[in-house]
Amino acid sequence: MAVVEIVSFGYLHDGPPAAHLTIDLREHFRDPHVSPELRYMTAHDEPVRTVVLGTPGVAALVLATARAVEAYASGPSQGRIRIADGCAGGRHRAPVFALALAELLRDAGHRVIVRHRDLDKDVVQR
To answer: Which end of the chain is more exposed for a tag (fewer CB within 10 A), N or C?
Structure first.
């Protein structure tokens, strides 16, 4: 099985990290930041995870990304597979997505490393 590195990030902090596959969660999935009760929470908080994972299309995208990782893993190279997933601030959608993807990939037998580049940064005022 492959070694998979997943980096969640926020586009408002800096550009995406180098990756084989970059998933942009900004435009098609509602941002929990718009809800005042969720704005200062993060992916560590159950209400945020529930909202993000309950958003139509998110679970399907997690599954599709896992299938893409399997395609990379089936190639002749034994190198690390890097996945970057980003949202606006990097505190809600992207880290929840990264954790869900990591769980799926670990269940499939991959060694997974998850890093949240911007999760602990201050909320971006916008």
So the answer is: C
Please answer whether residues 85 and 6 qualify as being in contact, where contact means their C-beta atoms are separated by less than 8 angstroms.
Answer: yes
pLDDT in tens, 3-51: 999 999 999 999 999 999 999 999 999 899 999 999 999 999 999 999 9
Q: What's the predicted TM-score (pTM) here?
A: 0.95
87-114 burial, b for 16+ CB within 10 Å, e for fewer? Answer: bbbbbbbbbbbbbbbbebbeeeebebeb
8: CB partners within 8 A, 6+ apart: 43, 84, 85, 86, 87, 90, 94, 95, 97, 98, 114, 115, 116, 117, 118, 119
Based on its alpha-carbon atoms, the radius of gyration of the chain, rounded to whole angstroms, reads 14
Strands 21-24, 3-10: pairing is unpaired
CA distance linking residue 79 with residue 71, whole number of Å = 13
The residues near 56 (Cβ < 8 Å, ≥ 6 apart) are: none
